[in-house]
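Troubleshooting entry. Yesterday's outputs looked truncated, so today I'm pasting the complete records for two proteins to confirm everything comes through intact. If either block looks cut off, that's the bug. Protein one:
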Amino acid sequence: MSSNPLLQFSGLPKFNEIKPEHVTPAIDQLIAEGRALVETLANSESTPSWENFALAFENHSEKLGRAWGPIGHMNAVVNTPELREAYNGNLAKLTAYYSDLSQDERLYTKFKEIQSSKDFSELTATQQKIINNEVRDFKLGGAELAADKKARFKAIAEKLSKITSQFEENILDTTNDFSHLVTDEPTLSGLPEDAIQAAKSAATEADKEGWLFTLHFPSYLPVLQYADNAELRETLYRAYATRASEFGKPEWDNTPLIADILKLREEESKLLDFNNYAEASLATKMADSPAQVKDFLATLAQRAKPYAEKDMAELTAYAEELGITDMQAWDVAYVGEKLRQEKYAFSDQEVKQYFPEDKVKAGLFKVTETIFNVEVVNADAPTWHDDASFYQINNTQGQPIAYFYLDLYARKGKRGGAWMDECITRRRTAQGLELPVAYLTCNFSAPVGDKPALFTHDEVETLFHEFGHGLHHMLTQVDEYSVSGIKGVEWDAVELPSQFMENFCWEWEVISHMTSHVDTGKPLPRELFDKMVAAKNYHAGMQTLRQVEFALFDIRLHSEFNPNGNQTAQDVIEQVRDEVAVLRPPAWNRFPNNFSHIFAGGYAAGYYSYKWAEVLSADAYSLFEELGVLSEEAGSRFKTEVLEQGGSRPAMESFIAFRGREPNMDALLRHNGMGQS
């Protein structure tokens, strides 16, 4: 067996052994093996079949993915210059390898042979789905292009891989680079005690006197929400809103990268005979066309805008009561929190005291165990950081069916946001069944002093959301790698389980068992919970329009915008705001420069999927509202028809099998307080 931990494929990743110097030898070896396998498969004179061709192709994909996964994960959560260099250098090689693979006409022809053979009907529905997906993806990968166009298509893919990674790095570097030291204690007026303590600890760590604030969310958000000092709020807001733009270091400016990304995507889609990149992107999604997406968003905007305008009028009037006659962007969260406290007589900070980490996790696991009939227990495995922990999911017989890592706190060198990613994907091999393993990553406030980590209710929702993604990956019963778990699930349906899980955070039956005041140990009072529910849809109109704004910007950028013209992405977001926004950021706000979802993630021409899937999730949850919040019957159906199916069949089929009908928007609007009165 190789001494390189990245080349050891039995069991879990050896995070305690993986070093940057292991990356290149491992990836070089696996790419060489992959190229040799391709030649063997392509030149074989045997009639291609599932067993002698598709399975061998899939097995190597799994092997390479399992080696690369821990590298990408560590690059995101414990980023160092050495690891980044190794990651970027090998990312280029992998992109070139996968480009060659996707353009190999010999492989494409063999997949088409299987698809058109008389034996195709003898394959399982899952195997047929994999073959059909492969034929589609080879076509989208440029397999049908002429040689000169293939070369250009590959060059585009390699360039996009490089600059989208750089886009994310620029945001991380800009975020890590900024800090603001407060030395005058009165400037901290209004800030919660734990935020002040965290800032004090950060200053001490940096060998400074005073209180140090950063752009990491646990530091940034309390300032925007609670700081009475408008100058402090403006300082942090301006730094956050202009990250990776022309207002900072030129080498970290994402503006030219955005222009390059859009030009390359446009060229790539034209090579494949699509009219624009959005059409190419939607080829693998539930939505049929950019026009359908725009109609969906327009309908949502039309329904939400009257509520948003009412929200904005209320906010503006209250700002004047606070003496803020010209409300600025950095005032909005502050005014909104003050108004919410007055309307509903509670604050996020008050609620946060009832959600210590251990109680929240126990509550999440209890919901999962009850409705899906599984058991979540602690387990041991090497991790990449002391903050990370490891768990095992068992079936009713006490046998393990999945595992997951949990890394909850924000820290330097860790990418912002929250996400689930695959570590190992469930599949059945000649050696037996390999169980799925997930990464669940958040960026919450770490424990301060001798107190446990405390989560806001928003953070509790985020944890439930990511765990929903994790359950989609972990509870699958599909044995074929390519459509197991979230693999093969249409991108605009992948948020269904995650958004579905958020609903449980608003049920007393759930919340009453997962709270304990950090000082008194008392559970959350029912009276306070009722106030939270009353405030649930506080300014939901504005929040919905904000998501519509981002989604419209994305779909228009990739379907209508001419990247070779005189307009910029910033012009497009301003035009969208002209139409739908009730809250206008300053002209110097550079949101596109930070929109990593579409410029560095997988959401290009797909950001609408958050709202699209929210329609599915709200409608799915309505069955639990009918049968009981913790209904085992509803949970069993959701597990069987949605979670266990993975990508083995179209998402709409899974939804209809679960709900008995196609989805509609009514449940979403009702959940957001925007239903018909």
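Protein two, checking that the full record survives here as well:
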Amino acid sequence: MAHPEAGKLSPEVINVHHFRREFEAPSEPLARVKFGTSGHRGRLGAGFSRRHAEAIAQAVARVHAERGIKGPVLVGGDTRLVSAETAEACAEVLAGNGLNVLLADIPVPTPVFSLEILSGRAAASLNGTASHNPPGDMGLKYNPPSGGPAGAEFTSVIEKYANWCLEDPNIIRRLPLSKAKAQGLVTVPDLVGPYLKRLAEVVDLEVIKSSGLSIGVHPLGGTSIPFYEGLRKSYGLKNLKIVDKTVDPTFGFIPRDHDGQIRMDPSSPYPMKPLLELAEAGKYDFVGASDPDADRFGVATKAAGLFSPNQALCVLAAYLLDNRPNWPSTLAIGRTIGTTHLLDRIAAAKGRSCEEVNVGFKWYVDGIRQDRYLLAGEESAGLSVYRWTAEKDGILAVLLLAEAMARSRKDLSELYRELTAVHGSPTYRRVDAAIDEAQRQKIKSMNAASLAGLKELAGEKVTRLRDTDGLKIYLEDSWLLARLSGTEPIAKLYGETFKGPEHLDRLLKEGGALFGLQV
């Protein structure tokens, strides 16, 4: 049966030839380069084209020259339509500027770029990906020597230089790929072996293997396929099966998301439907998925169904606290501003701190590099752990959760219930509300100072306010956060309470009214 929204979709969603033409010769004026939390992204054509890729690569080459950044740049991408072409375009420009390039010959997970930088094998990277966005989108992400998402100290300059290149393409220097390879400027690295070797040092693969746990994984048409295959072949994880190895840049085999769009989001029940059906049928004890660039995760079991990212983070935090005795006892748990506060209670019970950061994994980079976190996670299904990558890693997340289930011999839902029995059971919801410009300006103008007189909300005392990323109101056993979307006319209202579903309804209703939103 067709999705109820399917008729609203443009046929361009699966028109490969159209999007290839648009990448090479956009039919509309080019959008300016603008870096968000994960690089520059846009619709293939005016939003992202070969010219955007070349301009960003030229900007990166200039930044490296100005800042004295030495060493090769790792260039690659995911399984999207023009990822290979984007990578090759970037390699030609970087080589044209005299930089050494490590050009991937397979699709590459986002965390692998970070690992290569942190290992010292690469100095920086350019990654062609738009994560789990619809198939007609494309993007390019830069990782500096820190190994994590680039901060404003890099992106603001790259944006400026890249936009100059869009205005004057003569600035761009290129060296054809064949000549660059002949001159030794472009080489092809092994990316699977080093990643799996390090992964085996962080995840107890023997526990997973010997448990007999039946594991099904779905790469959602993405970059993780050869990495999961390597775990089976090189590390003997025969109880792990890849349930679908399809690689199709239209991603037409992925069930449509709630709005009728194709979106390869492993935390959504819609694209995860085939995997959930396998779990519900009891074919596997545990199923996991990662999105096309493998930086986000989704997991499910027959008993738990689709486990929410917040639940998964809590189970994993508690598991690591109990099962990594050699890790320093001073390590903190990190969570983003919209992530469950159950993590705070889990940390406090073990004498640990819980650090709150703004949305975006870039806010974790310094702490990860300083070995400060046991676990750093976000409610949008991303995480990293102690001495791991400065990027989110969906492969790692799936395997660590499988390890927790294998060692405990308990379902994820049982592990979560044990936590809530001790620390309280949170009720969490995010509401996306459409807004007009007047509402946007109202919310944008609100800050901690403007709400300084707010003493109570939903029957609870206000204990604190934070306005570093949206506006968050902390209550005694609850919290509310309002944030504006950077790309859509939407306000995101997050709420969590330890007082039950009815109290959450009240919190969101009263909180929504405070921000001029009807919830």
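Both blocks look complete. Sanity check on protein two: The domain at 10-189 is CATH 3.40.120.10 (Alpha-D-Glucose-1,6-Bisphosphate; Chain A, domain 3).
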